[in-house]
Amino acid sequence: MDSTFRKAPFLDRRDFLRYSATLGAGLMSLEALAACGSTAPAATTASGGTASINSLPPTNEPDAVKEFNATIQAFQKAYPGEKIIAKNDPYDPTTYFAKLAAGQVEDATESYFTEPPLMIQKHAAADITSLAKGWKYFASYDPSIQSIITDPATGKIYGIPADGYALTLWYNRKMFSAAGLDPDKPPTTWDQFRAYAKELKTATVAGYAETSAQNQGGWHFTNWMYTAGGDMQSADGKKALFNSAQGTSVLQLLHDMRFTDQSMTKQQLYTQTDLLQLLATNKVAMVVMAPDEMTSFKFQYQANLDNYGIGPMPQNGGNASLTGGNVFVFNPKSAQNVLKTAVDFVLYSKFDLGALENQYKNANSNGRLVGLPINVIFVGEFRQKLNDLANKYKNVPVQNYQPFASSTLKLRAEPRNQTQKMYAQLDSVMQAVLTNANANPQSLLDQAAQQFQQVLDQSGS
């Protein structure tokens, strides 16, 4: 979902992070489907087609529904013979595979970056290689984003990334100035970050606050791990690697900030919803957040966006930050002409510059945010075209986001195997180092890695 015109940018990531997903019966029922053969779509020479898509906004967002339907009408005019049936049927990882086996999944399903690897493995997504590579901007995807929807064994393509985020450092610009720090130069290294947090803390303000609940502690730990250059899992997803020197250094940094520097909040077990409230009410100076959350920050918490900046994640040798987002996958049972219609519509609704201009224009006129630094999944000329178009209708202080927008950090996707269970395992680790002054980071990680390795071993059996 394009965060410039949808009330809730991306599928509800905060709700999804609560899952320690167990797919169980859904996966077992899918084995019968997998036994039928290849995921390649059935060959057909028919032109045109009617495709269903799951991403119609809910009825309590009438403006978004109206805009979505207008996009469908414009698409059908631009692509004669191709028709779209839109449904509000949000992706659910606990039911998708069972629904697919029962023939109840739409032709195009908007899902999460974490999902395609398992779908590819279970033959639960269509091979759309020729359709995807036929789009002139497909090569403009960041390589790390392309890898999400690519079978590493065959190189075939199984999805269309729709939108994404990179975790970033949000900060209060007024607090920076009051502490004698340049609000246009947020910290870019761990050492600077720790020093800034100490400078920013006061009797009523914490320098930094961190998440450690509802799988978000593990999510943020992964992000910090990437800034240190570490890995969470082996490339094949079969071995837990997070109990490394880099992993220990992440926990030691946070532990020292909490107990030695006392630059973090005393209360813990936060989620990112809590962090938004703390930042909006001037109780913390810095948090880690994705830029799309500015929508909630402004409208739910009434934050004055002029007072806040976005910078890249501080680094300690990794030159990277975590990326996530939404991706469309396609029904492997759908006919080729139906798949073509579905792919054509996804590309048109998400990336046609004329369609986007209408969406940005409508978003601006309806008071929704335009101009946030969210076009992270592309590189080069196409990314610049998207940014230029958004800036034409901007209604946010884009200059405050320049430190992030001009950064050159690599994007690293979330680990590909049992991601949510891993995050849940690491929540308790994050909670321990942030609440126990005597916590031993290495011991905590060793225990968590041992327990999560059992999950990985069972998933491969």
TrEMBL record:
Entry keyword set: Signal
Entries under SUPFAM superfamilies matching the protein: Periplasmic binding protein-like II
Signal sequence range: 1-34
Gene3D superfamilies xrefs: Periplasmic binding protein-like II
InterPro entries: Bact_solute-bd_prot1, SBP, TAT_signal
Highest taxon of source: Bacteria
Name recorded for this polypeptide: Sugar ABC transporter substrate-binding protein
